[in-house]
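From the pipeline queue, job 12 of 40. The input is one protein chain; the requested action is below.

Action: predict structure.
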Amino acid sequence: MSFGFLGVQYAFGLQQANMSPIYRYLGADEAKIPILWLAGPLTGLILQPIIGAMSDRTWTVKLGRRRPYFLVGAIFTSLALVLMPYSSALWIAASLMWLLDGAANVTMEPFRAFIADKLPEEQLPTGFAVQSFFVGFGQTLANLMPFVFPLLGISMVQSHSETIPAFVRYSFLVGAAAILFTVGWTIFTTDEYPPEDIEEFHRKHQGGFGAGIQGVLRELLHAFREMPLVMRELWWVKFFTWYGLPLMWQYLALSIARHCFGAMDAHSPGFDEGVKWGNLGLAVFSALCFVASMALPPLAKFLTNRGAHAVCLCIGGLGFIGMLFTTNVYVVMGCMCAVGVAWASIMAMPYVMLADAVPAERVGVYMGIFNMFIVVPQIISMVTVPLYYDSLLGGDARNALFLAGICFFLAATSCFLVRRSHQKG
């Protein structure tokens, strides 16, 4: 059921580990990199709630309810992955990132609702934990590519004739094949339950809002007004988490290159080594995610959902802050283990807290709106960080990671705004 999520997260893992280096290879200013990442949250802001609402209303004879979106999104994601590492100019790479993120969001958004559709309430924590496992596993595989390719004789050093190194190109080609295979596996091996009365299904899911895109937009506005209280209370948790988290993907490799290998720009000796270790750091982060995800259900049972999430966020915050005090790349890898624990919880616990509060027939639209709680903070982060990167952060990527750690502690504190009376666990 969740195997396709592995391919989606493999694609996201490639993007998260490689886009900042790709932008630097193509001449981007380090302080302006967050602006170039805006494609992700903006496409998510627009597409996720719309796709969620549309998938609630969809039924096709052969592919069912959510699977048509898996298929279309996977095809366009693979196309963007194939083209991205052949970008010859900054504007081409930035444009392809819009395509990549838009298509990946079309694929990913219905997966959350797919789990809620098919599992009974008592199995939801396990279902989302398994999805978190595949998040970590897929991203780990993507981030290990720079360590696999040398075993196959592929050079990790950028040649004078290359704008983007060969290992980056091969990583993206493998990712294109991976998403088609894994999403295809889910589509063709997992059934969806057909409605007994198709006309009643459409009436129920249109909910009096009408058909077509206008009906979808009316439903979204109504869903905003009727948003469950627990969802509103989770806003600050999501805001601080996702204001800080993008800084890791934007600046981890650049921080390692500068402070562990002495590379001040993309043409300095040691920059490619920094990119390689940045990939490994994200692989460690993702590996700890899929290991820690299995511990989340018993931890939540012991501490409650909000308590478990707060503890995991604090562990991740300590990991980010610890990077400020070392130039040893192995210590940085240890810090990324701590961040990976937080990532496992970020990918599961907020959805567990929300799932019980959402009407079953509208789970898609509410999961889409909830994902807006991810993208809006990212947009704010990507617009504001360039304004103070050189002044408050001293133009230093490592200070951006320290800021991410502070944000995680604020998110952990915000968990206690979610009242326990709204939680079953």
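Job complete. The longest helix spans residues 90-118.
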